[in-house]
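## retry 2 of 3
previous attempt timed out at serialization; input unchanged, resubmitting
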Amino acid sequence: MRALMRGISKVSQGVSLAALMLLLVASLAVACTVEESQEKIDAKTRTYYVAADTVKWDYAPKGISQISGKPFNDDEDVFVEQGEHRIGKTYRKALYREYTDESFSELKERPAEQEYLGTLGPLMRAQVGDTIKVVFKNNTDFPASMHPHGVFYKKNSEGAPYQDGTSGAHNKGDDVVKPGEEHTYTWEVPERAGPGPMDPTSIMWMYHSHVDESDDTNTGLIGPIIVTCKGEAQEDGSPKGVDKEFVNLFTIFDENKSHYLDYNIEHFARDPEGVDTEDEGFIESNLMHSINGYVFGNMPLMKMKKGEKVRWYVMGMGTEVDLHTPHWHGNTVLSRGMRTDVVDVLPASMVVADMIPDDPGTWFYHCHVNDHIDAGMTARYLVKE
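## retry succeeded, writing output
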């Protein structure tokens, strides 16, 4: 870097400031590429066994607001109270879950520190140069798939049915995986799938079902991929120099659009025959303003220590009302070159934020849109001494 600055100083006379800045950015990008090319690292194929499973999901398993520490009030009960013509806080959903091998007979246990991930599918990792291989099985009763963002894939691993000029089982078998069937997706991770010149050492992409994308994701089929710079990943793919990572999905799960709406009415409403699915009150009650599938602070605490390097990966999903502004109380983050304590996400957008917490305590973490706060898009995080 010193040599670079000396070189710039020598040529600065007669060169515009804009040109010098372009030279600096280009030189930094080249330097990064050179450093990466010097790394002698064997690329890996990282294999995941993932099934779309039906589960009984409770959006508020503690049964009270963990923000107030009190029973739900009348306004909160709009979304969580079970009734004659209301489903309540428990729904059947379809979630991506990881298994230990191709037999799909044993679930891979999610570490205790990842319990906060909730409805999110398994956290997939890769280093630039790696290949992600996903053996996918559809255990639901509707067609599903796995479509990734950001990584490199061919037509037989896209996971989205549309008129794309291809034909035959080889190119179309990935589009729709019928109930009980399997498909293997292969996603490569070239440099263009990794962090850019202004990014930190790791970034996030997402994957989700794309057969009926709207209904599939509202039913719950979505998960994260984290890609780390070449030479900056540990053995498991996580970025070096980062002590803790947290992945958060801010979305209003519209259970009215779920594949299991009829099932949920039949099994959770006390008078299913009397339910009017066109009733505005019923529709509103099924809009679950959640972070990782939890409402009103019911997400397990995200824990860290003062002074640790903490990386947050935040994404959104949903419709035009899913404009979210995640806000951290008590601490600040660096995101997109800015110091802030609020970031913004839109549907299918992804943001990375780095934090070095300096203020111990249990802190409020929520979407700052007023309606979303009131409807339960709230959580907490803990900074220990």
